Automatic annotation (TrEMBL):
InterPro entries: Beta-lactam-related, Beta-lactam/transpept-like, Diverse_Enzym_Activities. Residues 90-113 are annotated as: Disordered. It comes from Leucosporidium creatinivorum. PANTHER family: BETA-LACTAMASE FAMILY PROTEIN (AFU_ORTHOLOGUE AFUA_5G07500), BETA-LACTAMASE-RELATED. Residues 17-236 form the Beta-lactamase-related domain. This is Beta-lactamase/transpeptidase-like protein. Pfam families: Beta-lactamase (PF00144). Signal peptide: none annotated.
């Protein structure tokens, strides 16, 4: 199943209804090129078709409940909306979403707490298992940290050029250097792999660290070499706030400083 679907579909972001997803034409044949888009929304349709479950039910049964997570869901919690959302004056703000979406999306829409999300990251860091609950096979976790771009030289070169340009917008160290990344990158299963040329970030992030970010400035990394994972969340749009990026950079540098002293 992985060879025919997950590895052929790819990356990220928000979709809409099932019908609108399937009506969007392909930019490239599956598995032929890296491109940021609605690929995770296609994965939603695959998961729902194979499992026979809506995405919400599948995630609850196979990830959230086994890990003891009760506050991550696609269904809004009315008691939490005031904490997470503030209307912006003099904008085209459409207001908070208070009801369930028609189509749950692999690219966006889950709501929850960093305290719960870090349990998912910790399970991946520990090889797919946490507190006796296994959510992924060890082999699947290993596959997450391997390149899934084309290995054909010319195709790979084009994909890496596009990925590197896009990744420069997701990295606070590149953000302050005009998009220039500290080292080379690649694409794993579920996120960006940094430092693939063997170079560490100067503050200590090890090569082959898996990371990604969300539109509201929600960031996470999994560094298996340093046995470190964390998530840094804000709830601010549009994406690209220098203040948030500066804070993220400072938080990560302090975490690695503390981890180094602990070792």
């Amino acid at each position: 199943m992985v060879d025919m679907t997950v590895s052929k579909v790819g990356t990220n972001v928000a979709g809409s209804t099932r019908e609108s997803i399937t009506e969007i034409p392909l930019m490239y044949q599956p598995g032929k090129h890296y491109h940021y888009g609605i690929n995770n929304d296609w994965l939603t349709l695959i998961v729902e078709e194979v499992s026979g479950l809506p995405l919400e039910a599948y995630l609850q049964q196979n990830i959230f409940q086994p890990l003891g997570i009760a506050d991550i869901s696609f269904i809004p919690n009315p008691s939490k909306i005031d904490m997470a959302y503030r209307p912006a004056p003099h904008t085209f703000d459409r207001g908070a979403t208070t009801g369930p979406e028609k189509q749950h999306s692999g690219g966006s829409g889950l709501q929850g707490s960093p305290k719960s999300f870090i349990r998912i990251l910790q399970a991946i860091l520990d090889g797919g298992e946490l507190d006796g609950a296994r959510i992924l096979k060890k082999e699947t976790v290993e596959d997450m940290f391997r390149s899934h771009l084309s290995q054909e030289p010319e195709d790979r070169k084009r994909q890496l050029e596009e990925l590197t340009e896009f990744a420069g917008e997701q990295d606070p160290w590149a953000f302050e250097r005009g998009g220039m990344l500290p080292g080379s990158v690649d694409w794993g299963l579920g996120g960006l792999l940094t430092g693939l040329d063997g170079k560490s970030y100067s503050h200590g992030r090890a090569p082959n660290t898996l990371c990604w970010s969300g539109f509201g400035h929600s960031f996470w990394i999994i560094d298996r070499e340093k046995d470190l994972t964390y998530c840094f969340w804000s709830n601010l749009i549009p994406y690209g706030s220098k203040a948030v990026f500066d804070c993220w950079r400072e938080v990560e540098e302090l975490l690695y400083l503390g981890a180094g002293k602990r070792d």
